[in-house]
Amino acid sequence: MIKGFKIFKNAISADDRRLLVHDLRLAVERAPLYRSYTPSGQPLSVRTTSMGRYGWYSDAAGYRYVTRHPNGTKWPAIPAPLLNLWGLLVSTDRAPDSCLLNYYSGTAKMGLHRDNDEVDFSWPVLSISLGDDALFRVGGMARGDATQSVWLSSGDVVVMGGDARRAYHGIDRIKFGTSRLLAHGGRINLTLRVAK
DNA sequence: GAGTACCG
DNA sequence: GGAT
Asked: What is the mean pLDDT of chain A?
């Protein structure tokens, strides 16, 4: 596995997961899930929203961070438990300014890509899995490099720093119905970042 | 011409 | 590995 890639299995307790989902439900009421598009016009299979000063957005104009939801409102605040987790696992010098929420239905996936739209790659990305199990694939610095796969489950936390911050990664598939955390099933992935 | 959050 |  790439250096700088850390998995914390079961890092969030079952109680805290439920509290977190409650916070996220409030955020999604104000900033509903929407679909992003690749620059070539293909819709992503995940549905997305964000919290924090910046949200990740993409359409024909490309991948970027924006300060407002497509509905014109500012993104909701990042819930305090997530900021605390960042302080514990990443840094207390600076808080993240973006938390991307991707919802995976039973058939959603995420192709191999690199998080490439941030200003300073020295800040790690912190990723949280909630709900159904997901098959996570990690490669190297080049698209054709060998990859490894690992199953992530609800409450797992991944930190990608150092070399791993620039590594290709994606989600091959979800194992629908493996968790009862989310009322309608599926998976939520949260990624905390310093975007700008 | 580079790089790929899509597809096959 | 494309087509964009």
From this structure: 96
Q: Tokens at residue A147, please?
A: 């990859």
Determine whether A58 is exposed, middle or buried from the number of CB atoms within 10 Å of its CB (0-12, 13-18, 19+).
middle
Is A166 strand, coil or helix? helix
Q: What is the pLDDT of residues A48-68, one digit of tens each?
A: 999 999 999 999 999 999 999
- Between the CA of A144 and the C1' of C1, what is the distance in angstroms? 10
CATH code (residue A163): 2.60.120.590
In which domain, by residue range, is A126 found?
5-193
Section A150-166 average pLDDT: 97
How many structural domains does chain A have? 1
Summarize pLDDT for A21-45 with one digit per residue, the tens: 999 999 999 999 999 999 999 999 9
Q: Which residue is nearest to nucleotide B4 (CA to C1')?
A: A113
Compute the C-alpha angle A81/A111/A20, nearest 5°: 15
3-state secondary structure at position A80: helix
Chain C nucleotides covered by protein, CB below 7 Å: 1, 3-4
pLDDT at A1 over 90: no
**Nearest-10 crossing angle of helices A14-30, A80-89:** 120
